[in-house]
Design a protein that fits this description.
The complex is a heterodimer. By secondary structure, chain A is mostly helical. Chain A is built from 13 helices and four strands. Chain A has one domain: ABC transporter involved in vitamin B12 uptake, BtuC. Chain B is of the alpha/beta class. Chain B folds into two domains: about 230 residues, Rossmann fold, CATH 3.40.50.300; about 240 residues, 3-Layer(aba) Sandwich (Rossmann fold). The chains are: A mainly alpha, B alpha/beta.
Chain lengths: ~325, ~500
């Protein structure tokens, strides 16, 4: 029973530990830059990290099913370009129609990934590595390489995510709502449970009557839909759409998951962990320029943190592995 | 080897076993599944370390710290399931780890291929050593495994059911090779379930039962009946809490079920409250039959009638809905998602019942899990801890609990007590009886004779994918079952 208590504590401790590290980091940075820990600045960091949080949750759902979606950022770029051009061409279209269009286009691109993984049983990393290039290429074909700039966009298209409600911009509120919805979905829906089971033990999931292929498909569709939603937030926030927006952002979303304790092997992870993982990256990104560290050093620091997080995870997995091995040995006795 | 014991948590797999192998002799190792044969092989090949006892080679004690150490000492094994690499060539598989080198220490492909060809020719096989293993048939892979064993200049060769996947002609070839090895003065430990083969090839024998060596001697001077008695040798009737249950009408009727490769023409009728045992050797097609009844694989042809209505099952989901569930043999691989909490594992096949409008009701989930945890006397700190933290016996309870929670009509148990200790075994047997008494119909696949005989109302014996006999409870005898399953009627 000791082992049981230890494990449960460790799992609970993981999120608390990450939270504590973030708090300590903020405290340390605020000794260098006095107002770093001010509520305004912290709210700003959260707002800056909002899109990463949404994409990391999309990525997490896919990773839970033992897959990976490397095409989220390319999906964002294509969808963002599509709705920016729609906005420029038809300024009369209501914003809600554009947002719905973004979600639908994103989901459609996600369903292509899902279909290839489900029906053709191609490994997800191969599928999404391919579609990553294809979706970005499509963004180029669609725009002919041209930019859509702020002056071509309608004022409402640009202003909504910045509008403050109760002290926080809409962008932050969207992230908060998505976090809440994802928590509910993964914890209380059949889909969420199926996702954990599909990654935790695919064979056992099949034996329990779960359609693991369909679960993966749905995870990719969800991931695409969230990438589509993020595309509007991104284009509006940075007031520009071009082929290379969010380049490399898919790796940030994976990094947030890994730092947050999502097992790349699938089946393990929590929404809270992913959000904290994204915030961790957000704090570092915002802090390092403040204390005068170059962007290249920033990248090296982010990379180091990711590897440390993986080492931490691997140690935890090994603890679990030992138990499995012992059972294997016991089972083999009977063989 | 002398006084070897091997203890796993909760299971004593080998208990003070001593055996001796002599150069130029074939020793047969005989015993039921679970008697400890494979454990002994793993100790001799350096995969497990014995907790007690010692291994002597030429009278000198040796310790096998690793698989490589065993190979260096001249021990090689051909395993039941050959451990080879699909993507490597035949020659690479044969010489993996001891490939011939050129003077520059790079791999000498020419020598490797030509020596592979020579080894395979000696086995009267014309397999091309440069093709990839994945393009070979199962029997050909076995020959590659044998060639690999021969490529290591071994003095002690262990063959763990080497004939299981071979045809008669290939077996004859193998035996010719074994005789050749004997003449070269190698000591051979030969494990097989097939008596006709053993009498053909072996000189001495050792019988294992429950991790002990219960008899040894010269095979030619010992009749088969006596060996079967040594294998089985225990008073089986009293140990099992099989209660008399009034058996009702037919619940599940299987008619002429055929699988593409694994079984043919299996028909059976399962009645209400009945425990139907399915006995046979490994590879007889028992688990494959169960998996096709559960919708994991689809049968080629055949009819399935449940409570008088013909049904078709295309997925486990269909089977669970119809009321047929399957508790698989490998609980780790097939049964449980180890990182997930106990209660989530328990409710996994019943999600539609514990949710409303697609949303899971935590209270209902816990209630369902608690009900079966109590019923099965599950020992855990809390229902929310990961299943991976439980002991083997308790994990097995979660597997059984999760299937009972679906409220099935027919439950198929595949080796329900494999790998769990004696005490838990009795509890599982008691529980199976209880379920039958409640009117559940049970198909119990088992390789353990006492369990089959002690628990079953009727027993279907399968042999090489065919139904080899159906025995009523009053006709059951270990000797009859073993003879039917091994084909020595």
């Amino acid at each position: 029973m000791h082992e049981v208590m230890g494990m449960a504590k460790l799992i609970r401790k993981r999120e608390t530990l990450l939270f504590a590290i973030i708090v300590v980091m903020i405290a340390v940075f605020s000794t260098r830059a006095a107002d770093f820990a001010s509520p305004d600045n912290l709210a700003g960091i959260f707002n800056d990290t909002a899109i990463l949080i949404i994409l990391a949750l999309a990525q997490m759902t896919v990773i839970l099913t033992k897959s990976i979606d490397l095409s989220v950022a390319a999906n964002l770029a294509f969808t963002g370009m599509a709705i920016a051009m729609m906005n420029a061409a038809f300024p009369g279209l209501p914003l809600i129609a554009l947002i719905l269009a973004a979600i639908v286009i994103g989901a459609a691109l996600g369903s292509i990934n899902g279909f290839l993984v489900w029906r053709l049983e191609i490994p997800p990393i191969v599928v999404t590595l391919g579609t990553l290039t294809i979706y970005r290429g499509m963004a180029f074909v669609l725009s002919g390489g041209a930019w859509v700039n702020a002056h071509q966009m309608t004022p409402i298209f640009l202003s909504v995510p910045r509008t403050p409600i109760l002290g926080l911009p809409v962008l932050s509120w969207v992230a908060i709502i998505i976090v809440a919805l994802m928590y509910m979905l993964l914890r209380y829906s059949q889909f969420g449970r199926s996702a954990y089971a599909t990654g935790g033990n695919p064979t056992a999931a099949v034996y329990a009557g779960i359609d693991t292929g369909k679960t993966k498909f749905l995870a990719f569709v969800l991931s695409g839909a969230l990438a589509g939603l993020s595309s509007y937030l991104w284009v509006s926030r940075y007031a520009v759409a071009y082929v290379d927006i969010a380049n490399g952002f898919e790796l940030d979303s994976v990094a947030a998951c890994v730092i947050g304790g999502i097992s790349i092997a699938g089946g393990v992870g929590s929404v809270a962990g992913t959000v904290l993982g994204a915030l961790f990256l957000g704090v570092i990104k915002n802090a390092l320029p403040v204390i005068g560290i170059s962007p290249f050093t920033q990248m090296a620091i982010s990379g180091t943190v990711i590897i440390l997080a993986v080492v931490f995870n691997a140690r935890r997995e090994r603890n679990r592995g030992r138990i499995i091995l012992r059972d294997r040995a016991a089972a083999e006795v009977a063989a | 080897m002398r006084g070897i014991s091997q203890i796993f948590p909760g299971v004593k797999a080998l208990d003070n076993v001593s055996i001796a192998l002599y150069p130029g002799k074939v020793t047969a190792l005989i015993g039921e599944n679970g008697a400890g044969k494979s454990t002994l092989v793993k100790i001799l090949t350096g995969i497990y370390w014995p907790n007690e006892g010692e291994i002597l080679v030429d009278g000198r004690p040796v310790t096998f710290a690793s698989a490589q150490a065993a190979i260096d000492a001249g021990v090689t094994a051909i395993h039941q399931e050959t451990v080879l690499f699909d993507e490597l060539t035949v020659a690479e598989n044969i010489f993996l780890g001891h490939a011939p080198r050129t003077r520059l220490r790079t791999i000498d492909w020419q020598a490797m291929n030509s020596r592979s060809r020579a080894l395979l020719t000696a086995l009267e096989s014309n397999i091309d050593p440069t093709i990839r293993l994945k393009d070979l048939s199962i029997a050909q892979r076995h020959l590659v495994a044998i060639a690999r064993a021969l490529s290591i200049e071994a003095r002690i060769v262990i063959m763990d059911e080497p004939t299981a996947a071979l045809s008669r002609k290939e077996i004859d070839d193998l035996f010719r090779i074994v005789r050749g090895l004997k003449e070269q003065g190698k000591a051979i430990l030969f494990i097989s379930h097939k008596f006709d083969e053993l009498y053909e090839i072996a000189d001495d024998f050792v019988v294992f039962r429950d991790g002990r060596a219960v008899g040894q001697g010269r095979l030619k001077e010992t009749p088969q009946d006596e060996i079967v008695r040594m294998m089985v040798g225990r008073d089986v009737e009293n140990v099992f809490p099989k209660t008399e249950v009034a058996i009702g009408g037919p619940v599940l009727e299987v008619e002429k079920y055929c699988h593409r490769t694994e079984f043919r023409d299996i028909s059976l009728t399962l009645r209400k409250g009945e425990i139907l045992g399915v006995y046979g050797l490994i590879g007889a097609g028992r688990s494959e039959l169960a998996q096709s009844l559960f919708g994991i694989t689809r049968p080629l042809s055949g009819r399935l009638v449940l409570e008088g209505r013909e049904i078709s099952i295309n997925s486990p989901h269909d089977a669970i809905r119809a009321g047929i569930v399957y508790v698989p043999e490998e609980r780790g691989r097939h049964g449980l998602a180890l990182p997930m909490p106990i209660y989530q594992n328990m409710t996994l096949p019943s999600l539609t019942r514990t949710s409303r409008k697609g949303f899971l009701q935590a209270a209902q989930e816990f209630a369902l899990a608690r009900k079966y945890a109590e019923r099965l006397d599950l020992r855990a700190a809390a229902l929310s801890v990961p299943v991976g933290t439980l002991s083997g016996g308790n994990q097995q309870k979660v597997v059984i609990g999760k299937w009972l929670a679906t409220m099935p009509k027919v439950i198929i148990l595949d080796e329900p007590t494999k790998g769990i200790d004696i005490g838990s075994k009795a509890a599982v047997h008691g529980f199976i009886s209880e379920l039958a008494a409640e009117g559940l119909s049970i198909i119990m696949i088992s390789s353990e004779l006492p369990e089959i005989i002690g628990m079953s109302d009727r027993v279907l014996v399968m042999k090489e994918g065919l139904s080899a006999g159906l025995f009523e409870r009053n006709q059951l005898s270990p000797e009859a079952l073993v003879r039917t399953a091994t084909g020595n009627a």
